[in-house]
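Section 4.2 – Deliverable D4.2 (structural model, holo form)

The reporting period included a commitment to supply a predicted holo structure for the target in complex with zinc ion. Inputs used:
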Amino acid sequence: MKFCALGSGSAGNSFVVQESNTTLLIDCGFGLNETISRLDRYGIHPDQLDAILITHEHEDHIKGAFSLSNKYNIPIHLSHGTFKMAQKKINTNYNILFNFIHNTKPFSINELKITPIPVPHDAREPFQFMFESNSKSLAIITDLGFVTNYLIKTLKEITALVIECNHDKEMLNNSDYPQSLKDRIGGMYGHLENMEAIRLLKAINHKGISWIAAAHLSEKNNDENLVRQLIAEATNKEMEVIKVIDQKDGLNWLAV
Ligand SMILES: [Zn+2]
Ligand SMILES: [Zn+2]
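Output (structure tokens):
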């Protein structure tokens, strides 16, 4: 299995998971042309995409999803709640095949087994995803207010992990954001602060993880080097296997 990121942050999230001839796009938070050019950086043509998985209806996750799906006939997988909330953004002329996620029930796309993972976030019915193939596993976990026991249990033996490290609590509190925005981001249904991500890493079997990629970093209220350092301290891993996904440049292919 292979992973790359087109970019991650509040201005757009999109990831690719590939196994043999199966290529999946996870979220599509960039516009149509931007998505196509970012895919091209990694040698992917949209025709190669077997499916688009959508985690939730926020704009930084769905911006180009429906136009891409319509243009290249790529089926979309999403929850009923996400569909309901995103419906007004789906052009009525579009011809899209929607596949609905049934709670945490795993499903398969070719050789990839996909397990939806519910997370606490201020969206209608958000799910993040775990991918499994050939006894390797990858989870992409962003957009959650806090780490649930269910998440810890599900990710216990994961072999590669993309995890939201949204903000440093103190930097957010001291920022010039209005109080209402601070409350939203820092709240139970907002975004994961660094130390919650660290709590998750410490609670799972991190020795078995080959690499960790931090995602959805706040441009104003976080620091890339701080995140790397916190992860290194918590897991005793070498810096080379600790990655940060850039908003603009994404993250190049990594083998799982
Ligand atoms: Zn987001
Ligand atoms: Zn969100």
